[in-house]
Amino acid sequence: MDEQETRRALITPALTSAGWSRDQVREEYPINDGKMEASARRHRRGPALVADYVLEYRDDAPIAVVEAKRTSVDVASGIEQAKRYATRLGLPVAYATNGREIWEIEIGGNRRRVSRFPSPEELWTRYCKDKGITSALEREFMLAPFDNRLRNTDLTPKRPRYYQRRAVNEVLLAIARGEKRILLTLATGTGKTMVAFQLVSKLRRSSWKGGEMPRVLYLADRNILVDQPKDDYFEPVFGDVVHKIGGGRAQRARQIFFALYQSLDSERGDEEALFTQYRPDYFDLIIVDECHRGSSGSESKWRTILEYFEPATQLGLTATPVQDKERDTFKYFKAPVYEYSLKDGIEDGFLAPYRVRRVHLNVDVTGFRPEPGQLDIDGDEIPDKVYTQRHFERSLAIQERTEEVARYLTDYLRQTDRMGKTIVFCENNDHAHRMVAALNQANLDIVAQFRDYVCRITDDDGSAGLELLDRFRKDDTDEPVIAVTSQMLTTGVDIPSVRNIVILRRIRSMPQFKQIIGRGTRLCLDIEKGSFDIIDFVEATILFNDPEFDGPPLRIVNDRTDEQGALIDSTDDEGMPDSEAEEVSEPVAPFESQGGGALPGSGTDGYVVTDEDEADAIQSSKRRIYVNGVTVFIWNDVHYQLQSDGKTLKLVRYREIVHDQVLELNLSPTDLRTQWATVKSREALRRRLREQCEITEEDLLRKLDHPEADPIDLLINAAWELPLVSRAERAHRVRREHAAFLGSFAPEARVILDTLLDKFTEQGASELSASALRVPPFRQMGRVTQLANHFGGVQHMHEAIDDLGRRIFDVA
């Protein structure tokens, strides 16, 4: 019997005889979606993890996994597979069977052969013992079904993923056991809002507060963090019981409240802060989104709000807990009851994998030192010292450096996807302003069609910036395409369609690095976005190599800057301030958007790390120095691809990239040369190479360093290691081996073809077209229509040029 027959004839009947009903046995149970792997075609999806059987005590309450093998297969081959599935699902026991024998695997314990499957009651008792479930409330929480009333865009139920179910259940167990401070750590893009929604739904259908509905407060420091869950998750299901607190008035006739710290802390006239208008025990549960931010400091003014509502159960949600002397997520919320990392999300196929391009500019590598007496753009002499990457855009800005970055990014988008949404993270708002100007200048052709193709979205841009952000976030908008920011988009903004993250700001904070990378990790398969690219100009991605990347937080250094980006003071890892400036624990909002919330990324919550000598340089300069007339160019760019462990980046040489990508086209060397030979098929092949393989003629010539060869020969040499043939050699062979072909034309036409051979030798196959006849030396021979007459008409001229191309490329 094959596996399906074994299951039908032996395994399912064995489960039935043990007391498992049809409703309790879930066959082909999907665990994940299959890992997305970055490739030449941007992504491919690997096989999904699917358990043969999951045994549920009640609906949505799995308690064991069964891995099935056909009768002729050794049952031992399914043990590790069963163990892997159970571990992911958080189940204490799994089974492997081939229908003839059954093996029981205790996760982290014994494994043994058994004569039969346990009954549902037996397994439920074992499950409760393993999880430490003793009270009626704990059992009620675990057996309550999840809420499937939310709908996807195709109107199918929006069901929680396995790790979201585990997160909800771990929080519920903590609540049932009376814990008051609870922490969940879930990577950016893994659905913390879904977890919050399911948690509230289960609590509302439980006996947690006797016969009363629990009062819930969802608290954050940004409008977007409050409005998105309220509008997309809670209001569609719970309706009028949902309310956003604001306007300085305490609303009590609802059950699920959303609020900004800023709104609760606001005062009106002689009245006290709004949060004090509620009793300290008014809320039963407070959900603190992005809990590593505003209220994380022990001396924070916003922490006072949480401490005021001390009787409430408080749940912290974050992707990046922080821990230093002033901010300690763990000290307040305790250790996470559940963690789901970026690596986990990529491995499961719920997050997009990434490729990394590290680009080095010559001035970043060698530094910049002004010539004696060299003046800046204001006519002032530039202080004589060596300026390095840590000074650029903070104390000194080189105009050509900004322009070279804009040129490189524009070329990259031309080669990949001109409309691929891109976020550029700059050092400060001034840097972002100049980068927008440079990118706009480099993209005038497309800006003429899309006026907001490039835009700045920072805390200085007011309501116009919020409008651009709202358009940028949507999957179906053509513009903006390139959003340039400093800190505003580092966190709290859900933009699944982002394909490129460009890092131009120095980052030494692990939480901030994770947040920035998280802007690209969301999948958006509706637009075929299954992976993304990180273009790193400042070596920020070296943090991927840190062993703590997916582990506990690093101790951090906090800098405060003024509105111009100048440093005010800095706190080192011992927590000692570098100046006596007044400490500010909350992000400072330059202005309030509707509802009183600070814009995303405003203020000092980015936790930028600055060396002491850099701080001295900035403070002593009094102003930023602007320099032009400096020679800036790309020193080198190297490509890295994410490996199967979901964390390691491997350096991939360009020749290897070309080899792997070309082989995916399923074209032989002869096919490639044939398509390259004629005008129409050559253009189609160019487009296919660019869109599917991200290969351009310019890159082939520059990176493979054989300017004497035609791009198609370089491509074939890289893919199959066939010998290179220079363009001059190809032209020589045509004149020698196809003299009869050339001699069959009238003298004037023969001169044209011979000149085309010369042009091919100099510049390549792009010269083998009628359009080449519009420039010298053909222009001196006459207009194109006149030249065509020498061939007997335009059609015959096109045929002759294509025939010449075939003869050029008909030999290896």
Automatic annotation (TrEMBL):
Pfam families, sorted: EcoEI_R_C, Helicase_C, ResIII
Residue ranges of domain Helicase C-terminal in the record: 408-565
PROSITE patterns with a match to the protein in the record: HELICASE_ATP_BIND_1 (PS51192), HELICASE_CTER (PS51194)
Keyword Glycoprotein attached: no
Keywords: ATP-binding, Helicase, Hydrolase, Nucleotide-binding
Residues in Helicase ATP-binding domain copies: 173-339
Signal peptide: none
Gene3D superfamilies: 3.90.1570.30, P-loop containing nucleotide triphosphate hydrolases (3.40.50.300)
Cited InterPro entries: EcoEI_R_C_dom (IPR013670), Helicase/UvrB_N (IPR006935), Helicase_ATP-bd (IPR014001), Helicase_C-like (IPR001650), Helicase_Restrict-Modif_Enz (IPR050742), P-loop_NTPase (IPR027417)
Gene Ontology MF: a single term: helicase activity
Annotated NCBIfam families: restrict_EcoAI
Stated name of the protein: DEAD/DEAH box helicase family protein
Organism: Streptomyces tremellae
UniProt lineage: Bacteria, Bacillati, Actinomycetota, Actinomycetes, Kitasatosporales
